[in-house]
Amino acid sequence: MNLLSCIVAFACAIEICLAGQQSLTPIIEASEVQCFYVEVTNTNYTFLQLYYQVLSGGDYDIRLYVIDPNENFIIEDERTTENSHRIPLHGLGTYKCCFDNSFSYQTAKMVYILFNMFVSDSEEVSEEITTLDVHNIIEGMDMTVGNMKDRLGKMRKRLMTAENLMRSGRIHEKQDRAFLDSKLRHVNFWSMFNSAAIIVIGALQV
Q1: Coil, helix or strand for 4?
Q2: Residue 47: its pLDDT value, please?
């Protein structure tokens, strides 16, 4: 296998995923709909990864719908606690992601939202790899391109698993914090109420 073939095969085996990543933790008030807009301005972007989880409020459920630049509904989730969607991007424009809490008349919902836009940029990978002596690397490690692809695939899965674990830890931390804040508000309220009642009763007895 010559050097050029090694470079081409190795470049094709690697998928570089890059993107604009953004996480939000908005509070969707009762009877309210909040929409977030993702502007796609680069034709190299291939898909949008959307993950969300309700951290607090009511039955921990929310509606979601996603509208593409042509005003087509491409995703509709009905009162879901947690979900993840891989949305193909077929063109430039604005994708609208709306979280609907209109079915709840009293309870606000805190929602963790993560947006990731990914792009496969094989040309950039090829340019980087040409600066390496790929042929000597393959001979020295006694690896075939197929083995390299398998190992890269396993490495990518491990990295994704680690990322999911870290993300899950952050979500549970936010959920626990929201729960503790809610309990603290209840404790403070009843403490103030009891203190006021004691003062009033004491004043009446005097």
Answers
A1: helix
A2: 86
3-state DSSP of 136-203:
HHHHHHCCCHHHHHHHHHHHHHHHHHHHHHHHHHHHHHHHHHHHHHHHHHHHHHHHHHHHHHHHHHHH
**Cα–Cα distance list, 38 to 27, 51, 70, 175, 205 (Å):** 19, 14, 14, 25, 64
Q: Which residues, listed in sequence order, are joined to residue 118 by a DSSP beta bridge?
A: 47
The DSSP line for 92-141 is SEEEEEEEE-TT-SS--EEEEEEEEEEEB-HHHHHHHHTTS-HHHHHHHH
Statement: the pTM of the whole predicted model exceeds 0.90: no
What the block records as the tokens of 31 is: 């009877």
The first and second tokens of residue 10, run together, are: 């190795």
Q: Which residues pair with 50 in a beta bridge?
A: 85, 115
Pairing of strands 33-40, 45-56: unpaired
Lowest mean pLDDT among 1-5, 53-57, 96-100: 1-5
Cβ atoms of 149 and 92 within 8 Å: the answer is no
Angle at CA 163, nearest 5°, toward 130 and 117?
A: 65
Residues 127-143 have pLDDT tens digits of 333 344 445 544 555 55
Which residues on adjacent β-strands are paired with residue 80? 62
Q: 114 and 48 in contact (C-beta within 8 Å)? A: no
